[in-house]
Amino acid sequence: MKKYISLLFFFICFFFLRYAYGFDIKGLQPVAPYGVFSTFSADSPQKGKSAFGVGIEKSIAPDFFRYLLQYAYGVTDKVELITTAPYVDGWNEAKSGFEDIALGVKHRVIEETKYTPAVAYMVNVSAPSGEGVFSTDGRAGAGLIVSKRVGPVSGHANIFYEKAGSSKLEDEINFATGFDFSAAHDFKLLAEIYGRKSHYSAALDDLEGRFGYRFMTTDYLYTTIGIGVDLKNRSPEYRLMLSITAVLPVEKKKIKKVYEEDK
């Protein structure tokens, strides 16, 4: 019951809070449960498994909706293909359109041990498929991902570099640190700090704290709810996030049968 009350409260906030201003480009995003919000984990879907995600984000001041379609596929247990297709609606009172569609390959090169973290690298490209202000005429980049679990807490750290397709834009550098705490078997608390020197600035122009939770609705369905609060420029002042992910195919649980012999 608490889960449904939380969802109802989230939707009320989502659709009744409105203000107005500028824009931030989303880029490649992790598919739950293989990341926090924008922080990637070194973990990936198992070989042959796929993760399909849909998400909605409501940004306040500037005021707009962003819709996300996400997909990840485990080529092997260590290699993942991932894509993100964002669509923006209602920015600057009227403008709507697709952002550049992002594609990436993540490869875990070092497995986690008792004392050392898992390490992965990722390369990504974005097709110049966006419209107007939502596009950088494509881009290409690479980054490093480090993950470590200590008890019920998993920590992740990312750093990425991206070069825009347009020569008029600056190179982008972003970093993220995220944590997920397993409060229960089907429930995790999430926290993240995300920073970025965007394509439009020569200095750090985005620093945001994000908090929320993720729960397993079923054995294969994950629901993530969060809020992001700007820590630097108050643009956007904050954002509300909701995503639902299905990891397929569903693993069939083996049922052990116990037979009693008749005496």
CATH architecture: Beta Barrel
Question: How many β-strand stretches?
Answer: 13
The ordered string of helix (H) and strand (E) elements is HEEEEEEEEEEEEE
Ranges where pLDDT stays below 50 over 5 or more residues in a row are: 7-22
Oligomer: single chain
- Helix count equals 1
The CATH fourth-level homologous superfamily: monomeric porin ompg
Question: How would you write the strand order of the largest sheet?
Answer: 1-2-3-5-6-7-8-9-10-11-12-13
User: Which value, in Å, is the CA radius of gyration?
Assistant: 19 Å
CATH topology: Porin
Strand percentage lies at over 45%
The mean pLDDT is 87
Euclidean distance between termini CA atoms: 48 Å
Main beta sheet strand tally, sense and closure: 12 strands, antiparallel, barrel
* Secondary-structure content class: mainly beta
The shape is: globular
Instruction: Estimate percent helicity.
Output: under 10%
Give the number of domains.
1
Outline:
The chain has 263 residues and is mostly beta strands.
Annotation keywords:
twelve-stranded antiparallel barrel, Porin, 263 residues, mainly beta, 6% helix
Structural write-up:
This protein has 263 residues and is mainly β. The chain has a single domain (2-247), classed as monomeric porin ompg (Porin). 6% of the residues lie in helices and 52% in strands. The chain has one helix and 13 strands. The chain has one helix at residues 2-16, and strands at 50-60, 64-74, 79-91, 95-98, 102-110, 118-126, 139-150, 153-164, 172-184, 187-197, 206-216, 221-230, 238-248. Strands 1-2-3-5-6-7-8-9-10-11-12-13 form a twelve-stranded antiparallel beta barrel. Strand 5 and strand 6 form a beta hairpin. The longest helix is centred in the N-terminal third of the chain and has 15 residues, at 2-16. The protein starts with a helix and ends in a 15-residue tail after the last strand. Residues 7-22 have low confidence and may be disordered.
